[in-house]
C-alpha cells in the first residue's frame, strides 16, 4: 500500500474578500527506495489546485488558465526546478527512512471477544464469533481450536478491516455441534504478541442468560438505591417536623387563698 506524508510546511496567504492561497508538499511511497518515492508540490487558490510539480515528471503542470501560465514560468526557473528535484533525495528520502521504521516497529496488541450467535437456518445448532480488534500492524492470524486441535471446516474469517484510526479488526465465525466436556478456543497470532493469545469459550451460561442476569442485577441495585434515598428523605422530613413543632405553653396558676 502507498503511504502519504506531508513533507514540507504548508504555506498559506490570506487575501481580501475571503480568498486564500496556499501550497502543500508531500511524498507518496511504498518503500524507502528512491525510485518508489513520488514528491508532489501543489499550489491552490480558493481551495482549487491550479498547478502541481511531480518528481516523476520533473516539472510543473497547470490545471487552470492562470495555472498553465504560472507553471510555464516556474519551469523556466532552472534553479527552482533543480532544487525541487533535489528535495526528493535530500529531504524526503531521509525522513521516509525515519517514518517508515517508526511504522514498522509500532505494534498494538489485539483485543479478543468471544461470543455466541444464532446460526443460519439449516446449519449447525451453534455458532461462535471471535472478534479481534484494535490491533496494529494489519497482518494477523485467527484460528479455531477444538480440544487443542485446529478446526478448518465450517469456519469463516473476514479480511482485516481498517477502523480509520490506524487500527484494524477481523471477525471469524465457527459453526459447530456442541459436545459434552469439549473445549473450544480462538487462537490469535500477531506481531505484538510474544506468544499466541488463546481465548477459551465458556458455555456455562449463554449470552441471553448473561444479559438477563446483568439486567436483573442492575434493577436490584437501582431499587436498593431508590429505597435508601426514600428512607433518608423520610427521616430528614420527620426530623424537621419534630423540630418545627412549638413547645407546649406552660402556665402556673396561683392557688386561691380561702
UniProtKB/TrEMBL annotation:
SMART domains: IGc1, MHC_II_beta. PROSITE patterns: IG_LIKE. It is a single-pass type I membrane protein. Its main location: membrane. Keywords: Disulfide bond, Glycoprotein, Membrane, Signal, Transmembrane, Transmembrane helix. The keyword Flavoprotein does not apply. The chain crosses the membrane at residues 213-234. Residues 110-199 form the Ig-like domain. This is H-2 class II histocompatibility antigen, E-S beta chain-like.
